[in-house]
Amino acid sequence: MNRVVVTGMGAVSACGLGVPALWSGAVNGDSGVRPVDFPAIENQRVGTAASLSDQTLSDLSEALKHRMRDPVAVYAVTAAEQAVAQAGLGEGDFGDACGVVVGSGFGGAKTLDDNYFTFAVDRKMRLDPMAVPKIMMNASASWVSMEFGATGPIYTPSTACSSGSQAIGLAYQMLKSGAMQRCLAGGSEACLVGGVFRVWELLRVMTADKNRPFSKDRNGMTLGEGAGILVMETLESARARGAEILCEVVGYGTNSDAGDLLRPDPQRASACMTLALQDAGLDPSAVGYVNAHGTGTVANDVTEVGALRAVFGDTLDGVEVSSTKPIHGHALGAAGAIEAVVTIKALRHQMAPPTINFNEVDPKVNLDPVANTARPIDTGAVMSNSLAFGGINASLIFARFDG
Questions:
Q1: Which of 241, 273, 302 is the last residue of a domain?
Q2: CA 20 to 30 Å from 392, out of 11, 105, 308, 330?
């Protein structure tokens, strides 16, 4: 079995373009949540989201004019370009040896929303003739593949909030088995459009105030969007290129609840984390930081902390836990990938980013989730968790590369 390493990372988020902007926001507690307005929604109840800033949209303006790409594909390609540049990959490093695995929850949401609105409200029959290739879920992965000439396997996990984590996990498994030498893996989401936002309002899971994961006064999540892409390689491939190795991917676990479609099962979530630890050959005590799914809904946070206690012990001694979703929002299909980037940066900087907006420990949760200010850590391994609608769990473990 091959060892698998990360040699490049890219990100598009509410914090800005690039990994440095994302990490700066996460570690310093500078939220990218801002006011949003959707003219098509009458009586909009929730007025904020972690949307891309005007500056970021301006920087992407030329790319967003692409006739064949929905914003979801633009975000994915942009993050992939950053990751490829950091990894130092050249034209000869792709081909059949390189695969692409990019997950998404909604695919081309803007294209779908625009065309449905034009057809149903304006009653126009002249719609975007390129709507189908822009909407299809695999468009982001396919455009990343075409951008770099990566002709290896392409996969597009669409497993709600676990899409990005499962994409990285699937890439890890294929690299480990020798199915390819390197892979561009992650997730992309461009879901902040009127129709999607409205149906999330109807679920009554979004906060009209601030996202406060694990806090006693938490009352819901904040939607986000963006992309996170990793360049993942076999250790042999990275060494042959003389690439800088950012970290090693050592463990991955995924399972399903086969229970309620919307409510996570703590026993299945803890089983997923245990699978990742077993895959890594690590004791729970080896993990010093967990980037939690941490949505900030009343029920989810209780469930997740229960799962964490089952794995790490009742006191969670020796492990810092935080949610960075109040910074970059819940980016759905891109969430796991964006959070993987943050988790790797936490490992490299030995700093646990804070859970901002935290006010008071909830006796039902009884957790201090790196409240409001980053904390130093001293650990060789970190974990990132995703617990998705549909009962789909995914856990990733990254470790310092020891040669």
A1: 241
A2: 11
SS3 for 40?
coil
- Pair of tokens at residue 227: 């992309």
How many domains does one find in the chain?
2
Q: What percent of the chain has pLDDT over 70?
A: 99
User: What tens digit of pLDDT does each residue of 211-245 get?
Assistant: 999 999 999 999 999 999 999 999 999 999 999 99
Whether 147 and 81 have beta carbons less than 8 Å apart is answered as: yes
Of 214, 241, 268, the position where a domain reaches its end is 241
Give the pairing of strands 247-256 and 98-103.
unpaired
Tokens in use for 335?
């969430």
| Domain range for 64 | 4-241
- The CATH number covering residue 14 comes to 3.40.47.10
When pLDDT is cut at 50, 70 and 90, the band that residue 208 belongs to is very high
Report the predicted TM-score, pTM, of the whole model to 2 decimal places: 0.97
CA end-to-end distance (rounded Å), the chain: 16
Residue 152 pLDDT > 70: yes
Active site residues: 161, 293, 330
In this structure, are residues 301 and 295 in contact, taking their beta carbons and an 8 Å threshold?
Answer: yes
Residue 398, CA distances (Å) to 180, 285, 286 in order: 20, 14, 11
Q: Is 374 helix (H, G, I), strand (E, B) or coil?
A: coil
Are residues 191 and 94 located together in one domain of the fold? yes
pLDDT of 124 over the 80 cut: no
